[in-house]
Amino acid sequence: xxxxxxxxxxxxxxxxxxxxxxxxxxxxxxxxxxxxxxxxxxxxxxxxxxxxxxxxxxxxxxxxxxxxxxxxxxxxxxxxxxxxxxxxxxxxxxxxxxxxxxxxxxxxxxxxxxxxxxxxxxxxxxxxxxxxxxxxxxxxxxxxxxxxxxxxxxxxxxxxxxxxxxxxxxxxxxxxxxxxxxxxxxxxxxxxxxxxxxxxxxxxxxxxxxxxxxxxxxxxxxxxxxxxxxxxxxxxxxxxxxxxxxxxxxxxxxxxxxxxxxxxxxxxxxxxxxxxxxxxxxxxxxxxxxxxxxxxxxxxxxxxxxxxxxxxxxxxxx
Amino acid sequence: xxxxxxxxxxxxxxxxxxxxxxxxxxxxxxxxxxxxxxxxxxxxxxxxxxxxxxxxxxxxxxxxxxxxxxxxxxxxxxxxxxxxxxxxxxxxxxxxxxxxxxxxxxxxxxxxxxxxxxxxxxxxxxxxxxxxxxxxxxxxxxxxxxxxxxxxxxxxxxxxxxxxxxxxxxxxxxxxxxxxxxxxxxxxxxxxxxxxxxxxxxxxxxxxxxxxxxxxxxxxxxxxxxxxxxxxxxxxxxxxxxxxxxxxxxxxxxxxxxxxxx
Lengths: 318, 262
Ligand SMILES: Cc1cc2nc3c(=O)[nH]c(=O)nc-3n(C[C@H](O)[C@H](O)[C@H](O)COP(=O)(O)OP(=O)(O)OC[C@H]3O[C@@H](n4cnc5c(N)ncnc54)[C@H](O)[C@@H]3O)c2cc1C
Ligand SMILES: Nc1ncnc2c1ncn2[C@@H]1O[C@H](COP(=O)(O)O)[C@@H](O)[C@H]1O
What we know:
The complex is a heterodimer.
Chain A: E1 3-7, H1 11-28, E2 31-38, H2 46-52, E3 57-62, H3 71-85, E4 87-93, H4 96-109, E5 112-117, E6 119-123, E7 126-133, E8 138-144, E9 149-153, E10 169-171, E11 183-189, E12 202-206, H5 216-226, E13 229-232, H6 234-238, E14 259-263, H7 269-272, E15 280-285, E16 298-301, H8 304-317
Parallel strand pairs in A: 1-2, 1-4, 2-3, 3-10, 4-9, 5-9, 12-13, 12-14, 14-15, 15-16
Antiparallel strand pairs in A: 6-7, 7-8
Helix pairs in contact in A: 3-4, 5-8
Chain B: E1 5-8, E2 11-13, E3 19-21, E4 24-26, E5 32-34, H1 36-52, E6 57-63, H2 66-79, E7 83-88, H3 97-111, E8 116-120, H4 130-138, E9 143-153, E10 156-162, E11 166-173, E12 176-180, H5 192-198, E13 203-206, E14 222-228, E15 237-239, H6 243-256
Parallel strand pairs in B: 1-6, 1-8, 6-7, 7-13, 8-12, 9-12
Antiparallel strand pairs in B: 2-5, 3-4, 9-10, 10-11
The structure holds flavin-adenine dinucleotide and adenosine monophosphate (AMP).
């Protein structure tokens, strides 16, 4: 019997995928397999959880060659599992690691692949994947035409289902894996900045219109006066002025606030794709031709160093 | 140390110029540009070559027509790349990332001397991130994606890369494939003089047949059913006057909209 195979190095994402894949598998008459890859059995306990959300079989592979999850070896391990499971559809989570992995896996399996999928639905017996195209200008709906299909699906696209099934059958295949020539020298946590922009009701977004790092404070003061979260462009996070967690756009958060106030942001499409679901968009920019104004409900052509202090003063006076 | 680097650069329509008509993107008469992250990759390659003291940077572009790539590669040649190789073939019109990867891999083999292949983490228009991973697999190369710092030395490269929640430092032997993120550098803007000189740099053009590839090998393996824009309906109200006037008018509007309490 053919199967859908799900994998992510992030267990929550794997559980989301498995929950939805159970539905697809039922409709398509396929089985559902999941994979857990690691070095020393850490994670083996998750096999039960994958079973509970619907995986019929959980393939666990623990091998020293998977140390550091180098993409070449991870792809090879997953390709071997996919063959063992008879997988015709492989779903991985489109984390950075997953987005790197999926095409390498697809190439091994002679498969077509769609990455950064943010919707995946069945149309009859065909899986149709949605993703942004032209930098976020459009949404493309795509199908994969090869016998094996690989989709890298953005985390949180699906909800984790309830534990309804029993534990799946745990299978530990003997794989032939060579260690990667890529060696992990060091891994350190990023300076994260826990913020939930997706659910924020008001957001102040700042961009490279700010002249220097200290001026990020001006953005913070404006956000405080508005009762808003502070967000930024990738341009600003590339400078290291704010953490990547605060980036809005194609490679950051997709927001839907009541108000998105953009300050010193040009409004390039890769940024605005993350703000276009806002109820109201306002913009402050010195350049009257900045593309952000095409998307704005309210616009101020002016110097943020004059307008923002005036705005803070006005907001604090009401 | 000698370092020969191939940088894969894609030409895409200037996204800021795309207008939406009846939900469809209008692509006619839109100028082409080299991908943003591909410029970061070219900048990284130039710096690595210069640090090594010897070697060359070859930029490699695949497209269905040379109208698209001839002009755009001039910009990266002017930045400081040494040579360009264009793979141009009408059979590439309908291709996808798998087909482009096949053409790139074959061209890299034909170029021959190559210690490092650099890519953008994603192309400016599609941002699939597929091409780098597929080429690495086709050429059986060790691969490191999302590089924010690359140092060459000894027999390999030391790469610092930016993952979702961590920074990893990895070491790979050469030859290797590396994709870069935008924070790795600020691509240089070529001087007028270098733009003039770029016109004289060698540009090779190959067809698929020169690479021993049949048209069928670049046929797409996915179908795009539709590609539509979401409608945006915005008010476009601009506030005039002094900063204080603009601030007042803005706050009043927010109160009226119910975003702010009275
Ligand atoms: C594949 C890919 C993915 C990307 N993903 C994202 C993403 O997820 N999010 C994102 O944000 N970007 C993303 N980008 C980058 C994006 O294309 C832009 O480069 C970035 O958004 C620009 O940031 P910015 O608006 O801060 O800077 P700029 O484009 O430099 O704009 C600065 C603006 O500030 C204005 N300004 C200057 N001085 C003042 C002043 N005193 N007062 C008021 N205004 C002033 C200027 O007129 C200008 O419009 C991506 C790019 C690529 C290629
Ligand atoms: N047609 C092309 N010609 C040369 N390089 C390409 C082409 N398409 C993609 N690339 C390279 O592959 C990277 C990732 O592209 P993509 O898979 O489309 O996101 C780009 O940043 C380029 O470095």
